[in-house]
């Protein structure tokens, strides 16, 4: 069963062809260089860049999979959450394809894609790992930070989420304050590793005492901002690595503590992690230590491209949504839902 999937939820124009969990081809055009100069994603520029590239991205994906569009069984697309005018580009294109080839549409929630990213396989079917429900899924990206109970295929319950900034967003903002460019997460990871992730400044960890699974990063960001104000430019440069290392530790400890709290609350010791921040090796290390302590297991997206936004994870999630209740006829109404949550799948 072949599925062609598109994701245009943010700044990547991405298309993939999957056969079940196997990715036959995946092409992604990243707009990061265009947005870098603005220090973040500019929606109108993202929309135009998606429009300019999408036909080429689809053609290349089909060619690379050595198939014809006639062979596709379903057309899947991310319909939210994301930037409204960016999502629209993917939806419009998938509607045109499904109408032309008279095949059904499978709308996919971008966050369920990130959940399934841990289970994506290459064209050879590797890595092979069966589902062992239930899981706790930690989703950490530039737009989202949430803990989800992944009960079974297409069955999710949001346990907690951020009340303000996302973890990746906090890292991006800290990097911006220090003139480190966008995206901040990877730069901070590198600089922090140089000082062995030492936590010199002990910035505040918000919501640690709250007995729930909500996150908050804006207080940390504000504390960081005011701390930098007390430093001269020379001091900032001198302490750059220690500053970002301490900041990263504060963010990661919040993720760690809330994840552990979710494990204790639910009695589930199997974790999956997804989203851009899941590329972070320091995060992977502390989560591996966490599950070891609880005799559990943790899965990460098996390849780097699967941590960030990509259509492969959308296609794989769609392969579990071929039931009638999840599919739409080619001419059906499908609108973008920029604030779509996992409870609305
Ligand atoms: O999932 P993603 O590509 O896009 C969405 O936000 O949906 O995530 C991007 C976020 C950015 O905030 C970026 O700084 C962060 O993921 N990120 C990282 C790393 N790589 C990307 N954060 C920490 N460490 C990394 N290695
Ligand atoms: Zn994402």
Q: What is the topological layout?
A:
Layout: E1 2-7, E2 12-19, E3 22-30, H1 32-36, H2 43-64, E4 74-80, H3 84-101, E5 104-109, H4 110-116, E6 135-140, E7 145-152, E8 155-161, H5 167-177, H6 184-194, H7 218-229, H8 233-238, H9 240-266, E9 270-274, H10 281-293, E10 297-299, H11 311-318
Parallel strand pairs: 1-4, 4-5, 6-9, 9-10
Antiparallel strand pairs: 1-2, 2-3, 6-7, 7-8
Helix pairs in contact: 2-3, 4-11, 5-6, 5-7, 5-9, 6-9
The structure holds 5'-O-[(R)-(carboxyoxy)(hydroxy)phosphoryl]adenosine and zinc ion (ZN).
What can you see in these coordinates?
- The protein is of the alpha/beta class and 345 residues long.
- The chain contains 11 helices and 10 strands.
- A 5-stranded mixed beta sheet has the order 3-2-1-4-5, sandwiched between helices. Strands 8-7-6-9-10 form a 5-stranded mixed beta sheet, sandwiched between helices.
- β1 and β2 form a beta hairpin.
- α5 crosses α6.
- The longest helix has 27 residues.
- It is globular and about 60 Å long.
- Bound molecules: 5'-O-[(R)-(carboxyoxy)(hydroxy)phosphoryl]adenosine and zinc ion.
Q: How do the strands line up in the largest sheet?
A: 3-2-1-4-5
What letter string, H or E per element, gives the SSE order?
EEEHHEHEHEEEHHHHHEHEH
**How far is the first residue's CA from the last residue's CA?**
22 Å
Helicity range of the residues?
40-55%
Tell me the strand percentage band: 15-25%
